[in-house]
Amino acid sequence: MLKADVALQELHVMPHIWAESRQEVCESFDWFRSYQGGVYFANNITKGYLLSGFPAKRDGFFHNGKLIISHGGGKAESKINLYALFPYNLGGKNITYAVLGVYNITHAWAEYETTKSGQKHVRFKFSFQWCKEQGEPWWHATKDKFTEERATLMPVVSSTEDTTCDASLENDNARTSESDYEEAMDISPDDERIPSTTAASPGNAAPKFSRRMPEDRVSTFRKNAASADRRCMYCGMRSPAVFSVGWGCLNATCTYFWRLPEAGNDPIPDDLTFDEGFLQLQTLLPLDSGFRNINPSQPVTNPRDKITTLQAFTRGMHCIKCGRLSCRSKWEHWECANCQNVLAVNGAPRPVKVLKSLNPGVNFQWYFVGKDAGIIKSPVKPFGDHQTAGNVLTFSFPEGRGQIHHIQHNSMGPLVRLDTLFEEYQMQAADGSLPFRRWPLRSHKLRGSLLTNYFSQNCGVPYHYVGGTANTLTWEEAPTAVVKAKEFIEERTNLALNKQSEFNEVLSAAYMEKQKMSFHTDDEKGLGSVVAGLSLGSPALMHFRRRNVKHGPERKICLSIVLRHGDVLVMDGTGVQQYYEHMVEPINFRIAATARYINPDRK
Ligand SMILES: O=C(O)CCC(=O)C(=O)O
């Protein structure tokens, strides 16, 4: 796969698989799920390798891309942010990432590279050879046969209702803190990176690969290796004959690394050309059948059980019309971000019964208060009559920084209303009248946009942290589910706390399986002192921790609360947002409505 910027010739054919953002790649293409690194590997197999915008010395694109030499990890000296070796202008078609195809790694070796300041760095290099079972590379075609080809290459329906995909990559959410962006780009557990470059000199320990290649792959690798490979008489490791200047040991841990035994062990000079034999295409072992079709399978759109909130439904789509990878950004269907091709989802509302009784999986029933957090819990306070009865648990933060009220219900009255409301939310989300979307984060470190992990929709005064005016419907346009949620929140808050709170904004959030809202604060300009949220569906854990504390015990979660179907959680006091941040981690499918007062005349 390569990352493009500006290249030379106009692109005359479209890649079969391409994207504008890394999130689109990671969410839609199983062969590359690394948000930060340039290499994605799982189970000891390099699944995806990103040819970065920073080519290093002696990187190369030979045989029109059937042989690629590239560096791994580390910092290249070039400041030009483009993959200059691909001869076509992908950027001109808004293509930031294009999948080239399946390559075999034919060699891996280490080189010394001298920086401008004269320092020597070890750089790991790889040669990749095109696997011929795929036919010719797509950019070799003289005209775009993309559409006809897709029809034959693409499986129409995936084999899966697979809910066992990798742990969700924390693409994030986050509204205020830098840490949230970092969290957003967590790397999945099976995602590893090759070592970065490190200064070394002969005899010094150089970086080692964190994992060894499994034996069967090693033997494949050896069979593929050019006959000019030689074994070093000092370290016993084989190295390819890469340069015309002669053979030298290319194992960075060897004392005689980067030396020429046939020239009195002189160091290999800086000015090098490749050995002609090394640049020949080799006869490779046939490609394993599992690697022959890397086209993403199409999402399941018509599941037998009509459940469409499983993790598989959070994955992106590969458009069979134009090749673009797109995130699942709309609740009601998949939509190609390039040609707007739609894949409709045929589901049904999920009854709350099973969801609400899911086990939150923690060793406390309602709450956890951190030792030394200075939080005082008041005695449980019952309220209401037989129709409206409930309990309030109040947690007071130290030094007058505000309170958290957890309003629970224990009567049948609200329950029927809540179950119906949960269903109404789902119906309106499914028909698009309640447009749940994943909105781009306002700032992040990845190229291209980065969408929130969860879906949301705002009513009333625009909420700038998530989607702003583009995500906002006025109260006249508001879906009935949201209006009813606001009424319920106001009734319960006023009854339980015995004070009148007025709200003019409601952010509804919908979470499919494994989605969550990362740590953030609601410090929107003009925000009133009371923020109250209603939970519907599966239980969720809401955690609080100190804000702007980078390390140490104070950084730890100081309060956790289990939110259940129908609970209302009130953050009371401006200090709650000023001194604490919060996150919500649902156990499974859940909808929440959070009501605020935001001064409409804020500047
Ligand atoms: O209850 C939820 O799902 C999260 C609400 C929240 O934290 C927010 O909208 O700021």
Protein architecture, described:
The structure is a single chain. With about 600 residues, the protein is an alpha+beta fold. It has two domains: about 1-285 and about 300-345, no CATH class; about 370-435 and about 475-595, Jelly Rolls (Sandwich). It is built from eight helices and 34 strands. The strands form ten sheets. Strands 21, 22, 23, 24, 25, 26, 27, 29, 32 and 34 form a ten-stranded mixed beta sheet that branches. Strands 20-31-30-33-28 form a five-stranded antiparallel beta sheet. A four-stranded antiparallel beta sheet has the order 6-7-11-10, with no helix packed on it. Strand 10 (about 105-115) and strand 11 form a beta hairpin. It is elongated. The two termini are about 45 Å apart. It binds 2-oxoglutaric acid. 2-oxoglutaric acid binds next to strand 27, strand 33 and strand 34. This is Alpha-ketoglutarate-dependent dioxygenase AlkB-like domain-containing protein. It holds the Pfam family 2OG-FeII_Oxy_2.
Which of globular, elongated, flat, extended, rod-shaped describes the shape? elongated
How many β-strands, per DSSP?
Answer: 34
Helical proportion?
10-25%
- In terms of DSSP E residues, the strand content is 25-35%
SS-based structural class? Answer: alpha+beta
What does the radius of gyration come to? 28 Å
Q: Estimate nothing, just give the exact number of structural domains.
A: 2
Bound small-molecule species = 2-oxoglutaric acid
Q: Termini, distance in Å?
A: 45 Å
Mean pLDDT: 84
Low-confidence stretches: 74-82, 151-226
Main beta sheet, described?
10 strands, mixed
Give the number of helices. 8
